């Protein structure tokens, strides 16, 4: 089955700097890779996702890159702001059918003012 | 708000109790999910429910029993739980007809004494 590894587990950056979180997956059949943000007391919320037919996707300050050959994908947050502080999860799945997401362990991102 | 509600938000139960968690989605989706989130493990899929299929994670103990009476409601029935079952239980929903995103509720924080 699928296995997703996420690094680092904690990340602290200065406000305005960039943050990068990396994930690797094991199942070459996976073709859907979402990133979720979880704030305290809330459920995870999707911030960006990418399908395997695309190498990069950007939405304002957030971007995701995918390297299918190496089976890894990364989240990039630029011009970080205090409200970016949260736990971020990557996930992988086959998009058709039940879409059984397999999640990484999470990264606690802290933005220092 | 994501359109997915969960009740109760907090639950404390003894090992001999029987309780149920409820999830309701107001998004017109046709697939619903139960996840377990504990401090020591990543988000773990427990069950997937859609009108056409039910998918189980084979590692989920039989003391957890899902019920999906219609496409808007999902229950997780709990009986004779163990302290290690204490966790945040998250519900999610998705539109299988062309929707990639799983929308999560805020979760039920369960403590088993």
Notable features of this structure?
heterodimer; A: 113 residues; mainly beta; six-stranded mixed beta sheet; five-stranded antiparallel beta sheet; globular; B: 113 residues; seven-stranded mixed beta sheet; four-stranded antiparallel beta sheet
Strand content of chain A: over 45%
Shape of chain A: globular
Helix content of chain B: under 10%
Radius of gyration of chain B: 13 Å
SS-derived structural category of chain A: mainly beta
Largest sheet of chain B: 7 strands, mixed
Q: Which stretches of chain B are poorly predicted, pLDDT < 50 over at least 5 residues?
A: none
**What is the helical fraction of chain A, as a range of percent?**
under 10%
Structure write-up:
The complex is a heterodimer of chains A (113) and B (113). Chain A has 113 residues and is mainly β. Chain A contains no helices and eleven strands. The termini of chain A are far apart. By secondary structure, chain B is an all-beta fold. In chain B, strands 2, 4, 5, 6, 9, 10 and 11 form a seven-stranded mixed sheet that branches. The model of chain B has no long low-confidence stretch (mean pLDDT 91). In chain B, a hairpin with a 3-residue loop joins strand 5 and strand 6 (54-56). The N and C termini of chain B lie far apart (31 Å). Chain A binds chain B through residues 4, 32, 34, 36, 41-46, 49, 51, 89, 91, 95, 97-106, and chain B through 2, 4, 31, 42-45, 48, 50, 53, 55, 90, 92, 94, 96, 100-107.
List the helices and strands and how they pair.
The complex is a heterodimer of chains A (113) and B (113).
Chain A: E1 4-7, E2 10-14, E3 19-25, E4 32-38, E5 45-51, E6 56-59, E7 62-67, E8 72-77, E9 86-92, E10 102-103, E11 107-112
Parallel strand pairs in A: 2-11
Antiparallel strand pairs in A: 1-3, 3-8, 4-5, 4-9, 6-7, 7-8, 9-10, 9-11
Chain B: E1 4-7, E2 10-13, E3 18-25, E4 31-38, E5 41-50, E6 54-56, E7 64-70, E8 73-79, E9 87-94, E10 103-104, E11 108-112
Parallel strand pairs in B: 2-11
Antiparallel strand pairs in B: 1-3, 3-8, 4-5, 4-9, 5-6, 7-8, 9-10, 9-11
